[in-house]
Hints:
Layout: H1 4-10, E1 16-19, E2 22-24, H2 34-47, H3 65-77, H4 80-99, H5 104-120, E3 124-127, E4 150-155, E5 158-165, E6 176-179, E7 194-199, E8 205-210, E9 233-244, E10 248-251, H6 257-294, H7 300-325, E11 328-329, E12 335-336, H8 339-364, H9 367-370, H10 383-389, H11 398-412, H12 415-426, H13 431-441, H14 444-453, H15 460-466
Parallel strand pairs: 1-8, 3-6
Antiparallel strand pairs: 1-2, 4-5, 5-9, 6-7, 7-10, 8-9, 11-12
The chain binds flavin-adenine dinucleotide (FAD).
Flavin-adenine dinucleotide (FAD) binds at residues 125-129, 132, 135, 165, 167-169, 233, 419, 422-423, 426-427, 429-430, 432.
InterPro entries: Acyl-CoA_Oxase/DH_mid-dom_sf, AcylCo_DH-like_C, AcylCoA_DH/oxidase_NM_dom_sf, HpaB/PvcC/4-BUDH, HpaB/PvcC/4-BUDH_C, HpaB/PvcC/4-BUDH_N
Domain HpaB/PvcC/4-BUDH C-terminal: 259-455
Keywords: FAD, Flavoprotein, Oxidoreductase
Amino acid sequence: MLNGEGYRASLDDGRSVYIRGERIENMARYAPVAATIDRIARTYDRGYDPAPGATNPLLAAPRSAEEFRERLAQLHGEDLMLHVTYQSLMALLTAAGRIEQDFPEGAARVRAYVEDCRRRDVRMVQCITDSKGDRSRSAGAQTDPDQYLHVVERRDDGVVIRGAKLHISGAAIAHELMVMPTKRMKPGEEEYAVACGVAVNTPGVKIVSTMPDQPGDADPREFPLSWDRVLPEALIVFDDVFVPNERIFLDGHVASSAAFAHSLGLWERLSATGGQVRRAEQAVGLAQLIAEANGTERIPHIRDKVNDLVLHATLLRATFDAALVKSREDSDGILIPDELNTNAAKVLAGEGWAAVVARLVDIAGGSTMTAPSPLDFDHPDVAEHLDKYMSGVDGISGIYRARLFHLIKNMTADGFGGWLNVTTIHAGGGLYAQRLVMRKHFDMDSAKATALALLGGVNPVQAERAGAPAGGIAR
Ligand SMILES: Cc1cc2nc3c(=O)[nH]c(=O)nc-3n(C[C@H](O)[C@H](O)[C@H](O)COP(=O)(O)OP(=O)(O)OC[C@H]3O[C@@H](n4cnc5c(N)ncnc54)[C@H](O)[C@@H]3O)c2cc1C
């Protein structure tokens, strides 16, 4: 296994990372991501076991709904790279079961790769979103064939792939890229039906990263939520990258091409929603705390707005819990979260977040954006003034109230708040995709039967012919 130092050293592996027009030689020494790397290194140190063959127990598949719930809570408390790795490994194992019949050799390679990654204790990111060119055309119908990642050469010992994957969270500070088709491919699009594992430092992999707006010398008090949690995002170019056979999980099997995306979608949406449930609850707490500090918590419209937040958080928690409680074991004994509730929760979270932000900012007031920095509270010339003029009701200090505002700003209104706003909608696939999956898994036949029962068991075909319900409407 790796410890924190081992993780830092592992990032100096010749990978090609570019940020703001510069080639970054060693991400472990790149200041804007230093706090995040420290957090990841601490997670590595906590999980480190020098015994030969040891693996991190947090990366094992959960065996019960209770273990599932605890695992997600533990992962949310660690760093995002461990969490993304967990989702990736679970998605791979889920996909292995789903491609078993079509491509058993691919399923065996997936399982061997997962074991190898656990043993090497590496961090993995998810490369699914293609550049996609003209969205109204399928992969094979693009003018430029590289707009979806595809195989450009087959050799006895592997394949060569070309294309790009966009918005890849954490790639610059990970070890492995889990590459998969972004959606189902059709017959004739076999070259696009490719899934594989690629090491980040493989020749031809170019990681062009962006960082959320947070200065490298940020004070943790200014960015209480994001300080050591920002991740570099990346556009990754696969410029004719060779992938050896043992790392190829799917190659040309169009019938199974959606198995990986669907498996990842499920795990990614479940985890993302877990974070959004906590955030929705934190938003309730923040709204109540700032209302109490402002002396507005008993004003009827403020109470109503807090109640809106309570309702949203409660519905979200209930749907998320249902996704865990209704999880089922697959043929390999891995617990698979419930599709309907996972996707419904993700839609609720994604569509509801803008309203949460609006309520919270409305309740808090304009200092959300303009509260002086905690660093100003340290300056002897102004500290006393700031503590006096930023205070609220009797007994509430200026610095406490200012820190609530910094937290609200970090959650809703600065660079990280903006990242959350976009991510809540798009991560795990756009909301449209989740609505499609939700609809597919809803038991429409049962809903129709429930509705027809109101008609007293009338046969709909006869009723249509007769122009009236055959059995009459039950009263
Ligand atoms: C911060 C962040 C982190 C992310 N992390 C990752 C990651 O780690 N790995 C990864 O692979 N991806 C990641 N994503 C990508 C995310 O899954 C995509 O942004 C999302 O799937 C939307 O794709 P797109 O951005 O290409 O937008 P588009 O596909 O261009 O979608 C824009 C809109 O058009 C609609 N649309 C587009 N095409 C169609 C169509 N044919 N039919 C109907 N509607 C259509 C979409 O529903 C959406 O409403 C991340 C995104 C963000 C914002």
